[in-house]
Write a structure and sequence with these properties.
Layout: H1 2-39, E1 46-50, H2 57-73, E2 77-81, H3 88-96, E3 103-108, H4 114-117, H5 125-128, E4 129-145, H6 153-160, E5 167-170, H7 176-188, E6 193-196, H8 200-208, E7 214-218, H9 219-227, E8 231-236, E9 261-269, H10 274-289, H11 291-299, E10 303-307, H12 309-329
Parallel strand pairs: 1-2, 1-3, 5-6, 5-7
Antiparallel strand pairs: 3-9, 4-7, 4-8, 4-9, 4-10
Helix pairs in contact: 2-10
């Protein structure tokens, strides 16, 4: 009996050892392909999700880098516009995608304020997503209709000293248009009536029609209208005057230290392999630095930054803290 028991225990130990060996082999087999996939990336087409409508600021930048990125990756790069809910629908799709580098995205400044504007987001921006590249930025411009009585920044400030005297357009609560406008009014000691729209197109149309008094919008959006004489630029939000509008003063000339930009960044699911993120950043930044592409972007009002993942994450964190403070201080209405 004792011998039989010992034999049974020996067989049990052997079975356990064999099982452990099989499990270890499975683990190695599963890990090896994942590592190989990361090392060989990309081996198939890459989808670039733009969480905004075609023709918008982010989409314009995406279209400029699409072909150059395709050539550098040696794979098709397909742009997928997933507009809606202030960009959170498309951004949520990026967050839920496999972290393998085959689904990436591009966002702009509103991405940093999503947690304040949409407190019930189904994803956590700082946990579920990571920056890949701080791509471009552009100053914003305070513009009024060409028929406006406000000829200068001083005219506008004088009018805005009176409560409910001046209105300003935005693309929605918590948007960069609203936040930079509120930052301006905070600096100037003035106020404005917020008039939200469902997009830049409707906002610009009402501004052109004189249905709203003003708007602070990205330079690429308003530059064609200023150049055509349909809008009047009163000030730019960069630290210094912009070469494309040399006669237009910077807000900082009147209010020291004032500075704000609209920006575009590339993002990816948070657990995307570091070597994939690094290659993506290197290739998209090389594309941005291509002289022909850089010129097109510059002519359109953008400044090429071509920053890496660390710079992108630093930008997002700093912008989130900056605008989060303003949202609370100015009691900006959100969801």
């Amino acid at each position: 009996m004792e011998t039989t028991a010992k034999m049974t225990m020996t067989h049990a130990r052997r079975r356990l050892a064999a099982t452990a060996g099989i499990l270890a082999a499975i683990a190695v087999a599963m890990a090896a392909p994942a590592s190989a996939r990361a090392e060989n990336w990309p081996a198939k087409p890459v989808t670039l999700i733009v969480p905004y409508a075609a023709g918008g600021t982010v989409d314009k930048v995406a279209r400029q880098v699409q072909d150059g990125l395709r050539k550098r990756l040696a794979q098709p790069v397909m742009i997928d516009n997933r507009a809606g809910a202030g960009g959170t629908i498309g951004t949520g799709q990026i967050a839920r995608s496999a972290a393998d580098g085959y689904t990436i995205g591009m966002v702009f400044d509103a991405f940093a304020t999503e947690p304040y504007v949409y407190p019930k987001l189904p994803y956590a921006s700082h946990k579920d997503l990571t920056g890949v590249s701080y791509m471009v930025r552009s100053p914003m411009v305070l513009v009024v209709p060409a028929s406006s009585p406000y000829k200068t920044l001083q005219d506008y400030v004088a009018a805005a000293k009176k409560p409910n005297a001046v209105s300003y357009a935005s693309v929605g609560a918590g948007s960069s248009n609203q936040l930079v406008a509120e930052l301006f009014h905070e600096a100037a000691g003035t106020s404005g009536i917020h008039t939200p729209y469902k997009g830049g197109g409707p906002a610009i149309n009402d501004l052109l029609g004189g249905h709203v008094d003003s708007m602070i919008a990205s330079l690429p959006l308003v530059l064609p209208y200023v150049q055509a004489g349909k809008l009047r630029a009163l000030a730019v939000t960069a630290r210094q005057r912009d070469a494309r509008l040399p006669a237009v003063p910077a807000v900082a000339e009147a209010y020291k230290g004032f500075e704000a930009y609209s920006w575009v960044a590339m993002i990816a699911p948070a657990k995307t392999p570091p070597n994939v993120v690094s290659k993506l950043a290197a290739d998209v930044n090389a594309t941005l630095r291509d002289p022909a592409i850089a010129k097109v972007l510059a002519d359109g009002g953008f400044e090429v930054i071509a920053g890496d993942a660390a710079q992108a994450n630093k930008l997002i964190q700093e912008e989130s803290a900056r605008w989060g403070r303003l949202i609370k201080a100015r009691h900006i209405a959100t969801e």
